Amino acid sequence: MLKQRHIVHRLISSTRYSTKIKTPTNAGTAHEVSNKQRIFFTDPVSPGSIFFLPNGTKIFNKLLQFMKLQQQHKYGFQEVVTPLIYRKSLWEQSGHWDNYKDDMFRVMGSDTSKEEYGLKPMNCPGHCVIFKRFDRSYNELPVRLSDFSPLHRNEASGALSGLTRVRKFHQDDGHIFCAPGQVEEEIIKCLKLVDLCYTKIFPLSESLQSAAYSLELSTRPDNFIGDIEIWNHAEDVLKDILMKSGKEWEINEGDGAFYGPKIDIKVSDKSGKSHQIATIQLDFQLPERFDLRYKDRDNTYKRPIMIHRAVFGSLERFLAMLIDRNEGKWPFWLNPRQAMIIPVNTKQAAQVDASRKLLSYLRHEGDPNDDMPVPLNSFHFNVDIDERAEPVGYRIKDALTKDYSYLIIIGDKEVESSKYAVRTRQDRALEHLTSQEIFAKFSDLERRYV
């Protein structure tokens, strides 16, 4: 019995395994990590579209959950769900048909005599339809709409590349309809959310000394729509905001959207390649094309200004940057493999039973045989159990190789005391915690995005 009591500490403290992934490129890292952790894959049956596996979907949903919380409860956005397919006439009204149709997927129904449709490559025209649907007052402004619908762009097959260049993707898309006097404040708020994401929650920079991201002001392209004077004014507004921000920025001549100038936020991967992620765009054109208006305090109708913004940008590309940065060693709150429970001796029924009970407790599973629903806003941790008839050292090694954040080892001593041996993947030091203490610890990590 004495030998059994000390086996957990001896096994964990003596196990040393290197799990470092050595890959030179963003694409190589993403595919290697994905193969090991079963995150995503692509298939020729749908070129440029990602098959997110259960582990990848957990990460994807956590990213969405994070952004929805920030947008709705910190920055005042209201989420909407909009159609994927619109009539050609909408894209003609917005200007996309003349300036973007080669990058769109056209949709044909069974009756070819009817109007052609287009699969949406962006959400802005649909949000203009929502704004125009109702009478608007200056008291309502700014109206901030967010949308996480899938988007499709007809990228050339030779340009497709893993997660970074796809045909089907998701954005944390947002559009702000505001009065002229609100533009500066709204763009500053957008930049603050960018800063929160890329300096605190998702630092993608290789070192603390380098900038977390770079800013570029992309100006009027050759295929612009609208009046040059309005374009010049919009560019001046963005220049003034960037000057006041105190951050370094550069001008990227001629790379604006066809409807307005934009601030592009870029990060570099470990190979030094630059990737655009977030964007903030100022648009005077679509409100004019859709005849958007609001009643001002003097009872006259005014034209709102539209701000397009996405902080993650493409979630698929953002995920590629995260994988490039952490090489599959996810922070606990994002990890699809948060903890592995390992009974020391799988022939000991008490150890296996205690492990299974802890598994159910940490997953916060509901009983399918009762009539009680799983409560809203509850924690459910990604915990697995390894009760294979393999040596415990082998199972510890396997869990570390798979980058579980925590290992929970249960031997006879742990069964007797109801305190379980807990260690991280980085540190072999043990904590002995009750199931309630483990749950509280994990809950705290998720609340703090650690």
From TrEMBL:
Q: Which PROSITE patterns match?
A: AA_TRNA_LIGASE_II
| A matching Pfam family | tRNA-synt_2b
Transmembrane residue ranges: none
Superkingdom per UniProt = Eukaryota
Give GO cellular component annotations, separated by semicolons.
mitochondrial matrix
This protein's UniProt keywords: Aminoacyl-tRNA synthetase, ATP-binding, Ligase, Mitochondrion, Nucleotide-binding, Protein biosynthesis, Transit peptide
* Keyword Oxidoreductase on entry: no
Main localization of the protein described in the UniProt heading: mitochondrion
Task: Kindly indicate whether the keyword Magnesium belongs to this entry.
Answer: no
Any GO BP annotation = mitochondrial threonyl-tRNA aminoacylation
What catalytic activity is recorded? tRNA(Thr) + L-threonine + ATP = L-threonyl-tRNA(Thr) + AMP + diphosphate + H(+)
* Enzyme Commission designation: 6.1.1.3
- Where is the Aminoacyl-transfer RNA synthetases class-II family profile domain positioned along the sequence? 45-331
Q: Which GO terms describe its molecular function?
A: ATP binding; threonine-tRNA ligase activity
Location in or out of the cell: Mitochondrion matrix
Q: Which family does it belong to?
A: Belongs to the class-II aminoacyl-tRNA synthetase family.
Instruction: Write down the PANTHER family for this protein, in alphabetical order.
Output: THREONINE--TRNA LIGASE, MITOCHONDRIAL, THREONINE-TRNA LIGASE
Q: What is this protein called?
A: threonine--tRNA ligase
Q: Source species, please?
A: Torulaspora globosa
Lineage, broadest ranks: Eukaryota, Fungi, Dikarya, Ascomycota, Saccharomycotina
